[in-house]
Amino acid sequence: MTNNLRVRMLATVITLGASLFSTGAGAQELTAVDNKSAKPRPAPRTADGHPDLSGYWKGTRDTVPGGNIAKDLPGLKLPLTPAGEAALQHNLTATIDPEALCIIGGIPRHNASGLPFEVLQGSKKVAFLYFYSYYRLIPTDGRKHTEDPDPSFFGEEVGKWEGDALVVDSIGFKDEKVWIDENANPHSDALHVVERWTRPDMDHIHVHTTIEDLKFYTRPFTYERTWVLGKPDEQLQEYSCSENNVDREHLGFGPGPIRPDGTRGYLNPAPLPPLPAPAAPPKK
Amino acid sequence: MKARLAILVAVSALTAAAPALAHHSFAAEFDGQKPFRITGSLVKVEWTNPHIYFYVDVKDESGAIVKWTLSAGSPGALSRRGFKKGDLKFGDTIVVDGYLARDGSHTMDARRVTLADGRVVSGASAGDGGPGAETQVPAR
Predict the structure, then answer these.
(1) Do A18 and B4 touch (CB under 8 A)?
(2) pLDDT at B17
(3) Edge-to-edge order in the sheet of strand A221-229
(4) Is the peptide bond before A108 cis (omega within 30 degrees of 0)?
């Protein structure tokens, strides 16, 4: 057998091995391909007649640019006020990504994240569970906002059903140690988020988000996204952010360069060195 | 050369099939213009989420030992690529290609690891915006 043939066989084995690993229950994928079926299965409903949003939901390649709250705006341009522009510059040049420091991302940032989430729906409360063991509990028992909610990363959230949509209205946000998305865009404590969650069919969940923050943005803007239902044996995994966060000592301010397509990273990174020469076979 | 390309293609197929997600941007920590290679002896492995870390002793020109910290993807993602924690054995000589930290420390993002048995494995944190991450992840 020639060396070339051996290496080709190894490559084939590695690829086959990948398919095996990727279908195993213990090795679930964190994202999904959205195979839009011709005959969607109807969304399930709870005993009280509402769509049941419960499920393990995974992002797809259709969300571009990922992690960018301006995804749906022309030219990816957020309507920043001068104060908002100053806050953005502060985030870019003087703050480390709060999530990388194990601080809760909050809303709407979790809706722009690439990580899956899980919904458990009860008759008077809906729980959204996230990687890093974060969660939010949304009451749907008819209560209103309090007069002076304590600031929090997810805000004070109140849910209600409007037809088949779960509408979540959130106020009372923190204004420090927060980025509104992965690109370090800002929000203030004046943030008001309205999410309309629907489950158009069994395999999809959708959110239409209206983001209003008149301190930092001249007008409200929207963000929409669809996730795909995970496999029946998939669920959130333990993900302990602060267990061994070696990176935190080495992180710079901001997310680094933002490319013209709205994603994070270098436009033309230098290539890695060529592969090292394989070890010579032992002489007989 | 073709043979090496075949392995690279296989490794790319793995990473495309098995995305995981970093919890910070590649560019927040590493310099895309500073690719680097180290060859050294493995002394410690921390197989933790959301990144594994491994530590390699490298001899510098004067013979002194320099300790390097290497960051890679999550255990789940690496396992799916065929990169198991048992593949890293203390005392093994490994070659790591990656990008240096921007802060000048002996810290590197391990994008590609050549194991002691010659296997080449992608160590990248998919979805972090680092070189090659676009083919691995999609959803951020």
Answers:
(1) no
(2) 32
(3) A134-139, A125-130, A117-121, A55-58, A221-229, A204-212, A192-201, A165-171, A156-162
(4) yes
